Amino acid sequence: MVTLKAHILPHPDLQPPGCRGSGKRLFDKALPNDENKLRSLISDLKQHGQILLVVDQPATIGALPVAVARSEGVLVGYLPGLAMRRIADLHAGEAKTDARDAAIIAEAARTLPHALRTLKLADEQIAELSMLCGFDDDLAAQTTQASNRIRGLLTQIHPALERVLGPRLEHPAVLDLLQRYPSPEKLASLGFAG
């Protein structure tokens, strides 16, 4: 189970959720992964002032808190990944934990408001498209890995055959040929002499 941790620090102009003007944390634990519990938490925090919800992953783990916050009229901010990594480099330690990430996001909301982006519907759609492109990138990487594996096997079995077929592995006819005739002997049985 993935948890989203909230660690809140005071912000001079706009208090993030879970802060009092004194800077005392009102909330420092994993956010509930339940719509009703999130609504209740937001309602409780609204009693202490205006709320700003900042996430670093609006389309995945942060999607539910973002949707609930929006429906409750809460301002939503986004800390882009590159900004998050650069800010994280300024903090001690290198461990990647939810608590550390939450502290970094809260600190950025408090001290570096210019690093935050307003999360609009278009941003969510871009994030979803980025995720789909990521799937495409994964598929392309797997295709390349399989092609390299086949070329490696061809090099071990018959280097001359790899020099001929290797650069053309993406062609359906070459793949069909290798499926029907998976060894040099079976290819030779076709009777074609080059």
From TrEMBL:
Q: In what residue span(s) does the Transposase IS110-like N-terminal domain sit?
A: 22-159
What InterPro entries does the database record attribute to this sequence?
Transp_IS110-like_N, Transpos_IS110
Q: Which domain of life is it from?
A: Bacteria
Report the protein name in the record: ISSfl2 ORF
Organism lineage reads as: Bacteria, Pseudomonadati, Pseudomonadota, Gammaproteobacteria, Enterobacterales
